[in-house]
Amino acid sequence: MKIWLWASLLLAVAGVPPTATAQVNASQPGTTQPGAPAPGAANVVHIGTLANYPPFEYSSASGSSKGMEIELGRKYCAAAHLQCKWVTLPFTQLIPSLLDHKIDAVMAQLSVTADRAAKVSFTAPVTYNSVVVLGPKGSPITDDPATMRGRRIGVGSETVEAAWAQSHLRGIADVRLYDDGALELQDLSDHKLDAVITDQPAAYIFLREGGKFNFTFLGKPLDDPMILGAGNTAIAVRKDDVKLRDAFNAAINAIRQDGTFEKVSAMYFPFDMEPK
How far apart are CA 17 and CA 123, in angstroms? Predict the structure, then answer.
């Protein structure tokens, strides 16, 4: 999953020991939080995230990170007694930066898939996020790939949606990859695309902010656990960083048990985002 919404939408439990020492090159790409601890400081966890994916992650006018997952992440870090520093990166650079030790974790609506699990270690699930097809009202397109034959379908580059399209739509549809999700949604609005494949919460925001007059969900959520996973997203860490993973797991469990997750989720969505 991953799609970025229009610019107009851009407007941590105690008991877990401190863990992790980050070694981050200060010249790495991306934007870090003002006033955050310096790279390399003990007990600092550098979390890679996005700057352009509201309402989950986005940058405010001052450059600080905001959004549902940022709010949850701060609570996890507080629960685990970690100093966390947000590092904004393009989606395609998140896992490579983690593996290169430029960041210590990724929290960016990262779907749990077998392919990713071969490279990184995932925490317990953080949110549930199904994948849907979004297009004009009255469209004959559904979740059935056969209905997309000859159609122009937009997906985010290097996302699970792109992997699904590569598997199911090769030779069937005109699949168009987007690094810029704002342009993708603009092309849908301008009818330069017949549909986009994205995650359900992001599609909901698009519809809520005006798209509902001309667009809607087409068919059912896509069902392909091998490619899309089971719908859950999680925090990714390196496979050898067991202490950090376990610290996050304890915090995630505590935040869910005390009702904090529901409160944060309700600030952004009218439906249940709790992992299944």
Answer: 17
pLDDT tens digits, 104-141 = 999 999 999 999 999 999 999 999 989 999 999 999 99
The values of phi and psi at residue 69, to 5°, are: -70, -30
Q: Take residue 56 and report the two structure tokens written for it.
A: 């989950």
Q: Which residues contact 242 (CB under 8 A, 6 or more apart)?
A: 121
What's the pLDDT band for 42 if we cut at 50, 70, 90? low
Is the separation of the CB atoms in 79 and 247 below 8 Å?
Answer: no
Q: 65 with 50: CB under 8 angstroms?
A: no
User: How far apart are the C-alpha atoms of 23 and 46, rounded to whole Å?
Assistant: 9
**How is residue 269 written in tokens?**
């969505």
Give the sheet arrangement for strand 195-199, strand by strand. 174-178, 152-156, 195-199, 131-136, 215-217
* Residue 147 to residue 129: CA distance in whole angstroms: 23
Walk across the sheet containing 52-53 and list its strands. 52-53, 57-59, 65-66
**To which residue do tokens 């925490």 refer?**
123
Taking the C-alpha atoms of residue 21 and residue 41, their distance in angstroms, rounded to an integer, is 7
Alpha-carbon distance 84 to 36, whole Å?
A: 8
User: What whole-number distance in Å separates Cα of residue 190 and Cα of residue 214?
Assistant: 11
DSSP structure class, residue 91: G
Tokens (6 digits) for 137 = 């009202």
Three-state DSSP class for residue 195: strand
**Interatomic CA distance for residues 246 and 185, integer angstroms:** 38
- Averaged over 263-269, what is the pLDDT? 92
